[in-house]
């Protein structure tokens, strides 16, 4: 790869950068509203189960493919399975990353706007209606497109110069800070009157609320929150040395992801029920709950600003990885300028994201299969492209990739017995693909 000089400088840097790529909007923004719309505690349990049994093995698989090939997404499969059609997995991932980033950046723009408005104290006000504030921001075409444009510009600038020096170093400071802020927010949230109802909703499973569709959503959320299925982690791990244990790194990322999801739920749902908000509110839930919670704290506006800035960083670390996979795919083994490719790719993604940005305003009445453009894009990525990509990766690992190379990559620096490798391989060969197929068919009512 043309960027091969970009190697992660440490194990911790790689793990935190990978966690940043994985966590982002998946755990902090999407998880609370998906949980709220799909039954609360039962959905959370399904999400944990899928993350451990399906998402974690897939994350290890993408790490194995990336470091084993030392190539970005498309070239990785070409190298590992030459003169075959398996490179479709990399192309699938590049397309998935492109589409995901087109609407992900819309939410990134919302976070950017909220961050900018919170600094001069324009979010938290006495007797403010935070649902109305959110609707006024997302319903303004000019504001949402400006937010989208600025968010994309930041991505283009950073990816143009490579991500190691900025993102890896910043991750070591800002990711732990995000954890600290979440813990503070959780302590405040559970102290509200009525908070116990929110805790029961989130932690007490009621499986009568689970449908075939919500099982698919839980599976899709586990993929979304770990960034597996679109070969983002293939590209990230291609920059990795042999001194890192891939199972341990994947385990660390998965555990951090579950913890952040737990903290997000503990911070959000007590506030939702305390202030009479609907847990089924949807994509805007976070933006309505956070100001409500911080407004009840001393120096709430200051803490809201700091939290939003940290949240913005978490969102950016995810989006950097998505633009990176698209950029690296078009600069690999070619005499092309990274800066030029990043600028062109970022501009095209910006243009593709405009319809999703207008889904709450000008194009609010335009529906695809009963969904807005934003929601349809999210459904396509989370419930079709991610599971589909994961299914293809599991088949590649189970039936195509060189077994000796897989075992070497799995075993480097891990000190795990061969039994763990066999367990992982059998999960990837049989359990992961069969589970994905069953859940998908069940969601369609076929099973």
UniProtKB/TrEMBL annotation:
Name the UniProt record assigns to this protein: Transporter
GO MF annotations in UniProt: symporter activity
Keyword hit for Transmembrane: yes
Coiled coil: none
Membrane topology type: Multi-pass membrane protein
Keyword 4Fe-4S: no
Signal sequence extent: none
Matching CDD domains: SLC6sbd_Tyt1-Like
Domain of life the protein comes from: Bacteria
Record organism: Virgibacillus necropolis
Family named by the database record: Belongs to the sodium:neurotransmitter symporter (SNF) (TC 2.A.22) family.
GO terms under cellular component: membrane
Bilayer-crossing regions: 12-31, 43-65, 86-113, 133-161, 173-195, 215-234, 255-278, 298-320, 341-359, 379-399, 420-446
SUPFAM superfamilies: SNF-like
NCBIfam families the UniProt entry points to: Na_transp
PANTHER family the UniProt entry points to: TRANSPORTER
Protein's cellular compartments: Membrane
Keywords assigned: Membrane, Symport, Transmembrane, Transmembrane helix, Transport
